[in-house]
Amino acid sequence: xxYAVIGSGSCGNSYIFKTKKSGFVVDNGYSFSExxxxxxxxxxxxxxxxxxxxxxxxxxxxxxxxxxxxxxxIPVFTxxxxxxxxxxxxxxFKQIGITPGKTYSLDDFSFTVFPTxxxxxxxxxxxxxxxxxxxxxxxxxxxxxxxxxQLADESDxxxxxxxxxxxxxxxxxxxxxxxxxxxxxxxxxxxxxxxEFVKSLSCDRCRKLYLCHISDKNNTPERVQEVFDSAxxxxxxxxxxxxxxxxxxxE
Length: 251
Fold this sequence. Notes:
By secondary structure, this protein is α/β, with parallel strands linked by helices. It is 25% helix and 26% strand. It has helices spanning 32-41, 59-62, 65-72, 146-153, 166-171, 176-183, 191-199, 221-229, and strands spanning 2-7, 14-18, 23-26, 51-53, 76-79, 95-98, 103-106, 109-115, 124-130, 133-138, 157-161, 208-212, 237-240, 247-248. The strands form two sheets. Strands 6-5-4-3-2-1-14 form a seven-stranded mixed sheet, covered by helices on one side. The termini are close together.
């Protein structure tokens, strides 16, 4: 399974995957031309993309999904009955509702949907499995769950939110109400939350950890590294995804 982080952070989020028989994208906060440029720079052919998976309808995740879906003529999987509201004028080429807690099969891969805890309606995360290799995306959630922990423990590749540094958030430019939103159970995971989550795993299987969705106002890659260097993780290589910068995964 080939993969790349097309971009991560408040400016836009997207992940691309290629299996032997299929290709798919999780979220897209970029214009069609920018998404294509980034994907092709890593050797992905957008004609191979057959599906899009949407986590939630905040703009940095959904802004480019409608255009990508319609230009490529491919369906978008969302939580069942998700109302796209103001974010989609024409609608997707096709919207397919899926139920959190269930596992589905497509082509040569399967995926499990799980609920996340975020201030967006029907927000979900995904865990993908192909030929025994599992990749799980856990971002945009104010807290974690047993299901997230189980799927992460079974994953070879984990994309995990490390959104903010509490000290920088407290001293930063955000008003109190917005700070409270980020700190809440329906906000985001801090650097310390992310580390504690990883420390709770067995770490017997995961070989790559991508720390994602780093805030440009309330965090820095250096703060993330400082926290994770304080408790070295057994057998896990971690990669800090800097705001908006694409990161190539394994071939």
